[in-house]
Amino acid sequence: MSKMMNLVEDMRARLDAIADTEQALVRALGEALNRVDHKLLHDVRSITTEHETRRGAILLELQGLASRIGAFPSARESRAGIEYEATARPIANANDPEPAFGRGDWREAANNIQQELDIFVRGRASSH
User: Are 105 and 69 within 8 A, CB to CB?
Assistant: First the structure.
């Protein structure tokens, strides 16, 4: 019986050693996962910061574009060293007998196109 008790004690000592080794491995794995989690969090934060920076730059570009929409340079302004001739005539406005150079409004131009089309369509309809 004492031989059996010795075998049980040996087995218990081996199991304790295996358990200690397993606990050390589990702790090491937990620490490694924590390091990977912190690295991933850092990477996500840096990517987010870069993305927000790019979005901000794009937003500024879009706002600049939006502020320039509908604002055309006048014909008298020089561009890249090219001078416009004083004899150039702007497109006549039906409501303005003496048209002047200036900034155009794309909404007004669109309305003028629609008015011209309406007049044209009415003229064709009455001639048939």
Answer: no
| Listed residue (77, 101, 79, 82) closest to 91, CA to CA | 101
Q: Distance (Å, rounded) from C-alpha 119 to C-alpha 128?
A: 15
> Each residue of 62-90: pLDDT tens digit?
988 888 887 665 555 545 554 444 444 45
- Render pLDDT for 32-63 as a digit per residue (tens, 0 to 9): 999 999 999 999 999 999 999 999 999 999 98
In the chain, the N- to C-terminal Cα span, in Å, equals: 125
How much is the pTM?
0.42
**10 sits in which H/E element:** helix 2-68
Q: Where are the domains of the chain?
A: 1-69, 89-128
Residue that is written with structure tokens 């008298």 in the block: 76
Q: How far apart are CA 87 and CA 51, in angstroms?
A: 51
The residue written with tokens 């050390």 in the block is 24
Find, among 18, 20, 22, the residue nearest to 30 by Cα: 22
Helix (H, G, I), strand (E, B) or coil at 2: helix
